[in-house]
Amino acid sequence: MKPLTQILVLLLGTSILCAQQPSGVEVLKASWSKVRIGWEGDPFSGPLENFDEMRSRARNERRIAQGGGERARREAKADEANLAIIKREKSPPRYYFIYKTKVKNNDTSAITQIDWDYVFFERDTENEMGRQEFTSNEKIGPGKTKELTVTIASPPTHTVSVTSLNLEERDRFSEKIVLVRVKYSDGRVWQAPQ
After folding, report:
1. CATH number, domain 23-38+93-191, options 2.60.120, 1.20.58, 2.60.40, 1.10.10
2. Among 98, 96, 95, which residue's Cα sits nearest to residue 150?
3. Over the stretch 91-110, which tens digit does the pLDDT of each residue have?
4. Between β-strands 94-105 and 145-152, what pairing exists: parallel, antiparallel or unpaired?
5. How far apart are CA 159 and CA 170, in angstroms?
6. To which H or E segment does residue 83 belong?
């Protein structure tokens, strides 16, 4: 009887280990990008001026037309610079970040919901630098793949500048998708171990 008990314990332990891995879900790829909001204007609309810009333009045109010479051109450039500063202060650029992952459902039941984290690590030390947590309510049929996309205002890490992203910043870290919870259409829920 003792060997039979050991075999049962071994089988139960194996099934618990298998239940901790979402063997039915495969992460195929992941990516993220930064997008600036509102930088492109309507190509069919004319130039829009507020009252201050119109007044400044008319004043500068009048100065130059009256033969103001170099001094008038300098003052016109100064007016343009002041208006550009005011415009920039009124509407600073806004950015958002797009996080994507492509997953494949290898299970026999459809997936109805996936909780996933986009984790960023320091390339040299593999210390975690940032984590974005998402929930995607997407139906993914058995054997099907789907790209999950989330758009938010938060950058990947606190070290990534919201207003300027250069290649050196992106190369400083590695990234990984971590599946946290998967809900299936048959009622099963897989939860990552804590």
Report:
1. 2.60.40
2. 98
3. 566 788 999 999 999 999 99
4. antiparallel
5. 10
6. helix 69-90
